[in-house]
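Table S2 (continued). Query chain:
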Amino acid sequence: MTTTMNQRETTLWMVNEVPARMVYAGRRWLVTDTPTRLRESVWAAPLEEHRGLYGWRFQATDTEERSLVFDVYRAEDGWRVHRAYG
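Corresponding output:
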């Protein structure tokens, strides 16, 4: 398993307030499982830095059929990928 940790910007589209697809690292991704909402307790940052922070964990598959699990969070300026697991 490969894990990458970063803070890369992503575009995330929601359906009924749940992630459905995204563009990340120049690729289009389709969410291919049931996303899990992430709360404050999972983020590796001091409490004062992430109070109210929330995000999602989901598997997504790109157009080349590569699947990864993503942890994404909502920042002030949009969505960001915190970790990608492959």
